[in-house]
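I keep forgetting this: the sequence line spells out the residues, with the fold written below as integer tokens. I include a record here:
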Amino acid sequence: MESHVNNILETTSRDKSVVACIRNVENFTDESRLLWEYIQCFRGPQSQDIETAVIVTVVNCIIFVTGVLGNVAVCVVIMKHKALSTPTDYYLLNLAIADLTLLIFGLPYDIMLYWYQYPWIFGQPVCQGRALISEMASYVSVLTVVTFSTERYVAICHPMYTLVMSSLRRSLRIILCIWVVSFICALPFAIYSGVDYIPHPNESQNIILESALCAMISQPENIPLTEISTTIFFLIPMTIIIYQYIKMGLVMIRNSNNNGQLGDSLSGCVHRKDRKYEMNNRNVVKMLSLVALGFFACWCPFHAQRLISVHLDEDYYSEEINYWMYVVTGILYYFSSTLNPILYNVTSLRMRNAFKEVMCGVKRTRRDKFMRTKCNGATGHRQCSNTSEVDDEKASLVRKKSIMSVIQKMSSATTIVDITEENNYQR
């Protein structure tokens, strides 16, 4: 039997601490106490210390409840409120669905691990399905953040492509593609996940059923799944989004300066519409940039811990540091799904009004919806107030084109005719 144990050590573990632990377990028998000591040499304790487990469970339960309620509210508001029917709103709806999926299928399992790590009792299909759904939902979240950032980038930096790129039908097709791509990319994690067992120290038996653990059993040779996942679904999206928001900020600053110079040349109403369009863009970009910032700030520690746990040699890597990194990064990882509904209400007046109307039954009065503007006719600039924050991309594009038409009219009568014909054709 001792030779059998040596074979187990050679094939299952190179960790010196595991070897020492097993050497201390003498006279392997089927007695429960000795068998559990043997299992713990490989798996560690079946549950974490009670203080840590309670604190982490309470925090994660708060995240779970607030995240589920908040994202369900976002879904209901966007689906029921008629004004929230732009491509950006559809992407936010998709992000809320992905966050719900991640919370429901991922967080309860992570909470369970603090109390009961093994044996896994739900079988192979549930183990692989959980890995697939959780990984897929995280990919959908990342790709959705990139998509709505790109949509806003096109609207601000390349406004003439907005009608082509920002139709609702096109947005739905993009959302469908996001889910399909995420499913395909998450499949390897499901394929290489499964229920892992420890070989039995007694030669007469094959495995220890009580050691069943749902985890990634192996990885394909020469294909580092963790590194590929981090690169494609974190580093590259983060780089793209940083570039897009820097570019959008520069364009909005330039447009703001240009509008100030053209204010005296344009009529008051046209200039007011341009300022309204610019304010809407600023508000939407502010909201989306905070969503993206919060998303990547919460996910950066998670991916860092994921890479560290894979690459650092166990002989030099402190298990205590790894454990606490796992605890903290796990909380931040799921907190990102709770953060989005909060950001919507804090940064967007339009979303707050929609929440009040749908969830609380608060209706805006006719005066609120159609407040008359008060303009100072003594100057070329008109300061106008309006309580409704409208973000209809198509209407904004029409206003932008009207401003362009006025500018072109001042320089060339021929050009204005061409632009008018083009606008009529596009409508």
Residues 1-6, 8-16, 365-400, 406-427 have pLDDT under 50 and may be disordered. The chain is about 75% helix and 5% strand.
